[in-house]
């Protein structure tokens, strides 16, 4: 997404809701550098976020992710963009995780830092939206996820990632050169179920993902291990973040606000399966 000087611009297919909100939309293709050059022309800032190669149906490879992330950054630099904000992952860091779609984000981060452009890297915690995906068990009155019932994990509403990016663009001197781990709430598995039950108006139980499933799916097993090790559980200073970004949503508020429709859908009878990548 590119923010042009004095107005907001979205590099995506034109949408009525964006246009109605006064956002100028331009077409851009991550695989077409020329379209990105045109989109970034006269832009003050670029918010760079790419679909994950682990995302179901994305059809992307790890090297696609690396190429897209680095290409956006390089073209932003060449176009004279004043500020680049790159959305990474909470699991990124100097040592590999062993999960390719996390580790590629660390590679992109390193590339961004080596460019001659003011940049800020945000590392979002696990999305609250993931908790209401089909197949999580909510339609059957239960929830299974990565943390143990008494283990704490941090989460963030996707909406708030964009709002943080906007705040970063608004105070470039404060945020340039920084890497921010961001989250809106921290919940144990039990607390997660309590919030879901209250919002749903029905009992919902919680359990850790079955050991048999984690053993069958190598990436899912490694992801759960990263939560146990703390790497993916999140270590953001929530008090400091809320002071800096007072709009951050806690999970209960998200469930009755932006997440209400997603929860309603998740409570309907659905198929089986889990997609966490």
General description of the model:
There is one protein chain. With 277 residues, the protein is α/β, with parallel strands linked by helices. The chain has two domains: 124 residues, 3-Layer(aba) Sandwich (Rossmann fold); 108 residues, UDP-galactose 4-epimerase, domain 1 (Alpha-Beta Complex). The strands form four sheets. It has a five-stranded mixed β-sheet with strand order 1-4-5-6-10, sandwiched between helices. A three-stranded mixed β-sheet has the order 7-9-11. Helix 2 packs across helix 3 and helix 3 runs parallel beside helix 4. The longest helix has 17 residues. It is globular, with a radius of gyration of 19 Å. The C terminus is likely disordered.
Keywords, separated by commas or semicolons:
3-stranded mixed β-sheet; 2 domains; alpha/beta; disordered C terminus; UDP-galactose 4-epimerase, domain 1; single chain; 277 residues; Rossmann fold
Secondary structure topology:
Elements lengths: L1 E3 L4 E3 L4 H5 L3 E3 L6 H8 L2 E6 L13 H17 L4 E5 L12 H14 L5 E6 L1 E2 L14 E4 L6 E5 L1 H13 L1 H4 L3 E4 L2 E4 H12 L4 E4 L2 H6 L1 H12 L8 H7 L6 H6 L3 H8 L10
Parallel strand pairs: 2-3, 4-5, 5-6, 6-10, 7-9, 8-12
Antiparallel strand pairs: 1-4, 9-11
Major β-sheet profile: 5 strands, mixed
Beta-strand portion reads 15-25%
Tell me the number of helical segments per DSSP (H or I, 4 or more residues long). 12
Radius of gyration, CA atoms, in whole angstroms: 19 Å
| CATH homologous superfamily label of the largest domain | NAD(P)-binding Rossmann-like Domain
């Amino acid at each position: 997404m590119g923010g042009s000087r004095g107005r907001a611009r979205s590099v995506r297919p034109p949408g009525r809701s964006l246009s109605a909100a006064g956002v100028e939309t331009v077409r851009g293709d991550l695989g077409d550098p020329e379209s990105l050059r045109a989109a970034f022309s006269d832009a003050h800032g670029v918010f760079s976020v790419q679909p994950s190669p682990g995302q179901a149906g994305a059809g992307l490879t790890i090297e696609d992710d690396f190429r897209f992330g680095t290409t956006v950054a390089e073209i932003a630099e060449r176009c004279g963009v004043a500020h680049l904000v790159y959305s990474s992952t909470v699991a990124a860091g100097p040592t590999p995780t062993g999960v390719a779609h996390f580790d590629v984000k660390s590679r992109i981060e390193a590339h961004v830092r080596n460019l001659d452009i003011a940049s800020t890297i945000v590392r979002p915690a696990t999305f609250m939206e993931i908790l209401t995906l089909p197949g999580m068990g909510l339609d059957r009155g239960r929830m299974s996820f990565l943390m143990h019932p008494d283990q704490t994990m941090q989460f963030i509403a996707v909406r708030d990632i964009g709002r943080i990016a906007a705040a970063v663009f608004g105070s470039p001197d404060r945020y340039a050169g920084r890497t921010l781990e961001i989250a809106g709430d921290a919940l144990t598995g039990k607390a997660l179920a309590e919030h879901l039950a209250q919002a749903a108006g029905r009992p919902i139980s919680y359990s850790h993902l079955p050991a048999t499933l984690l053993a069958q799916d190598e990436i899912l097993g490694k992801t759960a291990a990263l939560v146990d090790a703390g790497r993916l559980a999140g270590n953001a200073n929530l008090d400091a973040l809320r002071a800096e970004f007072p709009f951050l949503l806690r999970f209960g508020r998200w469930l009755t606000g932006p997440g209400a429709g997603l929860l309603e859908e998740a409570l309907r009878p659905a198929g089986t399966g889990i997609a966490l990548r």
